[in-house]
Design brief:
single chain, mainly beta, 14-stranded antiparallel beta sheet, 14 strands
């Protein structure tokens, strides 16, 4: 949940061992989820997520689009993809890409990683550097991208919905900024989809409180940075994925300066076939 230049950017941004088998032989578990986006109680868009898990590897695709008046005002839409590997205690992405557009402005960011360190990267348009805290080489090591940060791996064989699932700090790098998202356990909730169907999850989720800390790539003293670092009203609801030792977001809620921004699942299907989205999809 990076600091937004606009609320639309926040929502676009804001919007995972199998059974004993080798990665080559393990069955793939796929997840397909759809989300409603609201701001201060008003519907402003929709998002979708597709994720696949096979052995210790994963791929994730996320897309979002503003609707109604929000679409008219911002034209906001975007898609992002990530792939890599995961262990119970961390995620190691190998490739990330995002393509977003708001009105007449757009951006495309791509980077490749080796052992959690960024090795090659392209950012268009190039980021501004005046008055910005420089991003060091150290800031680009041991990081996860914003899509991979949505996936919380847990130890296989135990209860994934345990308070310990929230006990982590996510070192996020999005190509322009480096920041930490610290999570801590808050409570359990019970959920069900608003559009029921075969294979959809219904049951308990774990709710983590979140805290934001800017590291680099930001402008010190900026009002939005200070607001986010002092923001006590951020949380993520995590649902288990049958067939894979991971949790994925059911709901993300972040207070903004103009009200609560909420991304909440309307459907969350596990095991159903799903086409993989492309960030070049002209339908975005």
């Amino acid at each position: 949940m990076p600091v937004p230049h606009k609320t639309a950017a926040l929502l676009l941004a804001a919007t995972v061992g199998l059974a004993a088998a080798s990665a080559a032989d393990a069955a793939e578990t796929r997840v397909r989820a759809r989300y409603d986006l609201t701001l201060a109680g008003f519907g402003i868009g929709a998002a979708s997520m597709q994720a696949g898990f096979k052995g210790s590897s994963y791929d994730m695709n996320v897309s979002a689009r503003m609707t109604g008046l929000a679409k008219f005002l911002t034209g906001g839409r975007g898609a992002a993809t990530s792939r890599g590997a995961f262990r119970p205690d961390h995620v190691t992405p190998t490739a990330y890409a995002i393509n977003t557009r708001s009105g007449e402005k757009g951006q495309v960011i791509r980077f490749a990683l080796v052992s959690g360190a960024v090795r090659t990267m392209s950012v268009e348009p190039p980021p501004r550097t005046e008055g910005i805290v420089p991003i060091s080489d150290a800031d680009k090591r041991g990081v996860v991208d914003p899509v991979s940060a949505l996936m919380m791996p847990v130890a296989s064989g135990g209860d994934p919905l345990a308070p310990a699932a929230c006990d982590r700090t996510l070192p996020v790098f999005d190509g322009r900024q480096r920041f930490d998202v610290g999570l801590r356990f808050d409570r359990f909730e019970t959920v069900k989809p608003s559009t029921p169907g075969p294979g959809q999850y219904e049951g308990k989720v774990v709710v983590c409180k979140a805290a934001y800390k800017a590291i680099s790539g930001h402008r010190p003293g900026r009002k939005q940075v200070e607001f986010m670092e002092s923001n006590k009203d951020m949380e993520i609801w995590l649902a288990p994925v049958a067939g894979a030792p991971v949790l994925l977001p059911w709901k993300i809620a972040v207070r903004t300066e103009i009200g609560m921004a909420v991304i909440a699942a309307s459907s969350f299907t596990v095991g159903a076939p799903a086409q993989r989205a492309s960030i070049e999809d002209k339908d975005l």
